Amino acid sequence: MTSQNPHITSGNPRSRTALRRLAGSLGWWETLTTPGPPRLLAVNALAGACGSGLATVCLPLFAVRVAGVDAARLVTVLSLTAGCELLAAVPNGALAGRFGVRRFIVTAKTAQAVLWIAMAFAHGFWGLLALSAATGVARAGGGGLSQSVTAAVLPSGARSEVLGSVRALRNVGYLVSGALGSAMLTFDSPWVLRASLVVNGLSYVCGTVCMALVDARRARRSPGRTDFSVLRDAPYFGLILCASVFGTSLIVLDVGLSLWVLRHPQVPRALVGVVLVVNTLVVVVLQHRYSRKSAELDGARRSIRGSVVAFVAMAVLIGGTAEVSTPWAVVLVVAAAVALTFGELYESPAWWTISFELSPPDRRDEYLSAFDLSGATVGILGPLALAAVVALGTLGWLLYAALFVVAGAAALALITRRTRSPAGPVDTPDPKALADHA
Fold it and tell me: Which pTM value belongs to this model?
């Protein structure tokens, strides 16, 4: 007997339509499911975040319980690794400019896969230090170079949206890896801890395959001159410093707020984990949409202004929890987390556009790799800076707010100077011309 209800024979089309609309509103879902270079870039980002997030959760316990490295020496390992990444960013950009950015990324990811799998079987301080430092060198400049590949294989109008999808998918990966890492730690087994590092190595294998398959033909030879003159480009280097200030926002919740609640018991400690998860989920849902606002340089300027307002509000709100009761502290922290999240949604795509548009077209690989110095700087100095903010109390948060105002004003002034300078880039080349660097 044939049903007269079409919803019974083939499922509920309204439900399917609603799901498609929900997935389409995320933006990154379409990127992830549509064949072509954007999907390869998206899978690379998702796999990388899953692997690195899992390693971040499990590495400390692995080092102490399996590799025989105490907590103090582990801090030394992590600090030296961050230092190696900082020092290698510009040289890696020079190498990528000479030999081809895609070829360099494939080589670097292959090296990281081997190093992480080897690290799973390392023992002792010196072995762990050598392998970890080598991963820092291989990782250096990777974010900027991936942006260069994105520009080479996509039309200019699609670049910001795909980069927004990439950031959203990284947050998806961190959510997955956080949950998986917590589950793995419950087993308290050396082999489970080793497996977490092996999985990270395999995530780099996946990334290697994705980047090797990206279609970015070499139209002409890369420029022969590769040097460190990017560090003498004062306006661009100033933008890197400004981006470093904005980048500290990424560790406010898990470092700054965590330290703050230890000194102020009226702020519930459980609130830190809650707002961190909510922050990640909001970025997953909205980052693709907000990336469109910064697709052009004028939009990036507006986004910088918006992020300054949001970050100032965040800092003032957290500082205001010092002398209030618990209910008001909860309200202020939640409001601060909302402000912080919207600041991040604005500032990340803004810096993608700024770093790209204001780099010389014939030196783009080197410049974008150098721009990753901002991330490495945050990794080294960010926790110390936020610890100082917390130590100063409410005054510290007010000074932190003022620092965002100064960095934002400086960035806008440098952008104006750069765009008006005869030496600054004026026109963005056709994406096909960019493929020679891939």
Answer: 0.81
46 domain-assigned:
yes
pLDDT by residue for the chain (438 residues), tens digit each?
Answer: 444 444 444 455 555 555 455 555 567 777 788 788 888 988 999 999 999 989 988 898 899 889 999 888 988 998 899 899 988 988 888 888 888 888 899 999 999 999 999 999 999 999 999 999 999 999 998 888 888 888 778 777 677 778 888 888 888 888 888 888 888 888 878 999 999 999 999 999 999 999 988 875 543 334 445 556 777 888 999 999 999 999 999 999 888 998 998 888 888 888 888 898 888 888 888 888 888 888 888 999 999 999 999 999 999 999 999 989 999 999 999 999 999 999 999 998 899 889 988 988 878 888 888 888 888 888 888 899 999 999 999 999 999 999 999 999 999 999 998 887 644 544 444 444 444 444
Task: Count how many domains the chain has.
Answer: 2
151, 186, 213 - which closes a domain: 213
Token look-up 């509103």 returns 25
CB 105, CB 145: distance < 8 Å: yes
Last residue of a domain, one of 189, 213, 237: 213
Distances in whole angstroms, Cα of residue 45 to Cα of each of 40, 114, 168:
9, 19, 9
Same domain, 278 and 411: yes
Segment (H or E) for 187: none
Identify whether 5 is part of a domain: no
Residue that has been written with the tokens 């090797």 in this structure:
212
